[in-house]
Specification:
CATH superfamily of the largest domain: Vaccinia Virus protein VP39
CATH topology of the largest domain: Rossmann fold
Order of helices and strands: HHHHEEHEHEHEEHHEHEE
Number of domains: 2
Oligomer: single chain
CATH class of the largest domain: Alpha Beta
Strand content: 15-25%
Distance between the termini: 64 Å
Shape: globular
Largest sheet: 7 strands, mixed
Structural class: alpha/beta
Number of strands: 9
């Protein structure tokens, strides 16, 4: 039987960023579920995401089902949830719309951590929305919309307190900057966003101008290379108090703005 040390050495040689952690997690998962540990390790060494092999991803206080066809949530997105919670603090039943919801990590975390929040989660992908439905099954304050972000929800225009999104934001020319776990296994529709990586962010901003109430807040995640360009999209659409924010590693991560019209 392969040891943790041997497993970690295998993963390190393959370029896995957290070899010892992943080795321990996979061997423990294999033992608990009667699986072949070496098979799992070889798959991880080929850069299959750890979360796909485990069948889930931890995000804040949630354990989300994930797998092929849905974007795997990352820890850096957790600060986006903090921004939404700050924006709705003190509102008894805030309405939040999560565009490009994917697995539901952001919107479902908000629902979990704010006892009165009403969440609309919008996802266009046929595959991703099935993961979303699975994750939202026990959350009665969440509504799921299998639709393009410009088409849903249809009944809350001008009444939303926060629109939040972690949209596709990788520029087409940045493919080689993306880790193999992401580039080769996350769905392309959740990654690529035109020549400058802002195509979907522009759509999110446009939709937010319709959904938000006056004084409502938009929170949009972006890449660490868009700390200037993403805020410019919000400002250009009429948002005020536009501000960019860092993640826990000190990198530009998301932009907020207030809708004033």
């Amino acid at each position: 039987m392969i040891t943790v040390r041997e497993a970690a050495e295998l993963l390190a040689a393959a370029g896995v960023a957290s070899p010892e952690h992943d080795a321990r997690a996979l061997l423990r998962h294999a033992e608990s579920n009667g699986l072949d540990g070496e098979e799992l390790l070889n798959a991880r060494a080929s850069r299959v995401p750890l979360q796909h092999l485990m069948g889930s991803a931890g995000f804040r206080y949630l354990d989300l089902a994930v797998g092929p066809g849905v974007f795997v949530p990352r820890p850096e997105s957790e600060v986006v949830v903090e921004a939404v919670l700050a924006a709705i603090a003190g509102i008894e039943h805030p309405r939040v719309v999560d565009l490009c919801a994917g697995s539901g990590a952001i919107g479902l975390s908000v629902a979990h951590e704010h006892p009165g929040a009403l969440i609309d989660l919008v996802e266009a992908s046929h595959t991703a929305v099935e993961w979303l439905r699975r994750n939202a099954a026990d959350q009665p304050r969440a509504r799921i919309h299998h639709a393009d972000l410009a088409a849903a929800p249809t009944d809350v225009d001008g009444a939303v307190d926060v629109v939040v999104s972690n949209p596709p934001y990788v520029a087409l020319g940045e493919r080689e900057l993306v880790d193999p776990e992401v580039r080769d296994h996350d769905p392309g529709e959740a990654l690529w966003a035109g020549e400058d990586g802002l195509d979907v962010i522009r759509l999110v901003v446009e939709r937010a101008t319709v959904l938000l109430r006056p004084g409502g807040c938009l929170v949009v995640e972006h890449s660490d290379r868009q700390g200037d360009t993403a805020p410019a999209v919000l400002a250009g659409a009429g948002f005020v108090a536009v501000e960019d924010h860092l993640d826990l590693t000190g990198r530009p991560r998301f932009t907020t703005g207030i809708w004033s019209t």
